[in-house]
Every structure is written in C-alpha cells, then in structure tokens.
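Budget justification, computational time. The allocation requested in the original proposal was used primarily to generate structure tokens for proteins on the priority list. As evidence of use, we reproduce two of the resulting records. The first is shown immediately below.
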Amino acid sequence: MNQGGPVNPNGAPMNPNVGPMAPNEGPIQPNGGMGQPGPMMPPPQGNNKKTGLIIAIIAIVVLIVGAVGGYLYYKQTPTYSLKQVGAAIEKHDWDAFEKYVDVDQVADDMYMGVIRGTLRYQFEDGNSKAVDALFREHKDEIKADTANVSKNIENLVRGKKTEADKKGKQDSFNFNTNFFENFKYKEIKSIEKSGKHAEATVVYNLESFGKEVEVVFEMSKMADGYWTIDSIANVEEVWNTYYDAYQAKLDEVNAPIKAEINKYVSMDRLRLFLNRTAMYPYLYYSAQITTMEKPVKDIEIAVTIKGVGEYKRIIEKTVVFHSNIQKTGDNGPWGNSYRLNSSDEDDRLLYFDFKDNTPMDFEIRKITFFDGSSIELKDTL
C-alpha cells in the first residue's frame, strides 16, 4: 500500500515528474491545459493584409483631405494672389490679372507718385510746399492721363509693344512696357495682415542698374475669399530709387562721350542776362569758348538755373550757341540770345524768377562740326 503520495486510478504510485494523463493520449504537457499560458498562435495572414490595406487607405484619405484643405486655405491668402499676378503676366492672361489687381487705382497711384517724385527734383531741397502747390494746380490734367498708364499696364500683361516701345523711347510718365521690364521679381519679403487688409512687401531687381527696390502693395480680401491688390503705397520712394539708378547709369554711359566732346571744345565764364524791357523778353548769354583740333559750328548747352522766387524752382533750359567759329584756339567771349516764349512754362518762370546773379550750372550737350558730323550726349538709355 502506498503510504506517501497520490496514486493513479489503477493503484500505481504517480510519478511526480510526469503530469496527469489525458485519456488515451498520454500525459498532459505542463502549461498546455485550458486556461494555462501557452505559446501564441500567429493570426491568419489574410487578416493582416486586410488591416494594413485599411490603414493605408485611411492615411491616403487623410493626406488628400489635408492637401485639399491646405490648398483651399492657400488660395485665400495674399501670397497666392501675388503669385497669380506674376503667373498672369508670364502667360499674358489679362483676365486673370484684372481679377487680382485694381488696375485703374494702381495706375492712378503710379502716375501721381511719379509726378510727385519728379517734381521734387525740380526744386531746391525738394521743396514740398512747391510740389503740393503745382500738384493741386495740375491735378485734373494729371488724373486725365492715368488712362494712358492703365493702357500701358494692359499692353505689358498682354505682351504688346507700344509705339514708344518700338522706338526705344523711355517715357517715364507714360510708363511704357520698357519701363516695367526693368523690374524683375525676386521675392516676397513680408506680408502683414490685419482683418481684411494686408500689406505685402515685394522685392524687385533693377537688373539694368544693379539695384534692388521694395514695392509695398496694399491688398484687400474679397467676399469670395481671394485677395486683390488695391494700390501701391510707396510709389514716390520706388520712383526716386529708380530715377537715381537710371541717372547714375546714364552718367556712366555719357562719361566717354563727354570726354570726346571736351577734346574739341570747352566753355568757361558763362553769363546770362535777361532783358525785360524789350517788346519780347530775351535771355542773353555769353561765354569764353575754346576749340581744339578743328572748328566747331554749333554748341548746344543745357543751362540749369536755380530760381530765386517763392518756390526756388530749378529750371533746366537747353540753348544753342550758333557760334560759327571757324578757327581753333581761344575765341574770347562769344554771345547769343534766346527769345523767351510766353507759352512755355519754364520761360515764364525764367522771366519772373531770374536775376542776373542767379546761381547756375551748364553742360555741353552737343557739338556740330562744319562737315555736318556731331557728338551728342544721350538723353535716354
């Protein structure tokens, strides 16, 4: 009789190292029974693939929804509108350009700003009082001309050339397409939004002059969400930068031409006198003229006079010495006269502002020889 441990149903002692017997199958392995931890069986492969496919589809849908939502948001930003303006110019799409730009208002800003900027060069120290007075005096004429600017903006976008463009004329007031083509887009520097208003600063390269200029666009958000350019906030500043760069380049181009002129003629001790007592006022001028190498028939000079009236307007008048000097060397004082024209604004200003001791400068613009040949400074690039 077994006194010490469990027995099998047949009465034989149980081996402690062998588990219970499964019916007809031998001993049950440790941890193999129901409820006992045991080795995990791998899930069916078909379920794995189906789950991965669902996750991938969800991820793609999320990406698409995010991209569409992001694009719809982007279309309602000032940046998008600015890019569309650039694309419209590249594609010559006038309808798209008009959608994003208030052309008439921008043309008005440009014309007014340039005239103000230009007028400031015509007065000592940029006399703002004089500029404002003249601006008010000619405002109606100025506004009437903004239609020309609008048309030339359209020509630029459509890729058309005006007659002035074809002739290569750099007409700053008419803003032909040659003028606009000097501005090459570089980058959007900043955009500041406040409600439905935005101010975008865009940097352009003035490639011909090696300069950069920042243009500040005022923008408004429209009812359907997109932004339009309403106006240009700093036209006068932009014009001044352009004008200074243009003049510097023009001076550079003219430097060797001026040196060539100086080989043949020099002028000194230029004097001007205004005769107001005659029936028709005359401006008399004289100078010490020296010709070298060969005789000079005519000398064209630009006289710059600083007015002494209330506004101290700077007047530039081009006059011609019909010198007919037929010998070289020192020709002594040589004089001539210029009749003032009452219908010419500069002549009227000369009449009222000029004094015999008025400060002035002069520059020889052109010389003509007896054989008809000439040397002339350039007025435009």
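The second record produced under the same allocation is shown here.
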Amino acid sequence: MTDRIYYTDQKLLELIKTEFDFVDDKGWFELYQHKQDKTFWRLDKWDKYQTQFFVRLETIDNWESFDDSELRVELLKKTKGIDLKRKCIWNNCENLSLQGLVYCEKHAYFEMGIRK
C-alpha cells in the first residue's frame, strides 16, 4: 500500500483482516498496524451515512484526533480528476472544477459534502 489514504471497500476490509493487527478503538476510529512494515493506519468505523476511509498515520500520538481532511480532499481530486475547461463556480474561486462537477475539490468537499 503506497498511498496515504484509501476509500474503504470490501476488498480493502478483507486485506485489513489478513495483513493488519487491530491495536485500539476510540470514538469513530479503529487503529491498525501493518504486520510487515509496522506502519499504523486508522480506519473510520462504518456508518451508512459516511464514506469510510483508511489512512496511514505518520505517528500514533493523538491518532484519534488526526485531521486527515486535506488527504481526503486530495483523494477526491485524484479520483474525480480535474476538468481543464471549467472553473469552479464558487464565488471568487479561480480553481478548476472536478470532472463531472461544477466545483473544485475544496469547495466540493468542504462546502458541498462530496466525498467520493
């Protein structure tokens, strides 16, 4: 796993079961450690109204309060792609919009609640 953040799907959940050890559970998150490289990862607990993410942590200090929103925005941008012909329609925004949307990645994520 080379990226710092992934959308969680059934295939990833199966991988977590086999290649990671459960470490801790706090609030809305679970902490795992990769069996091979010993990296720590945070899994969002499942919620039918939220997109679930799996995030590699740089440190386990305050792991449950780590702000991964910028990683989520970058994943949204990577997944959707940029529309090189259209600017974001948010007032005074000069960024290009995401493919299939009229908003840039930041306005799509933070203002419109788009996660995937």
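A brief technical remark on that second record: The chain has a mean pLDDT of 96.
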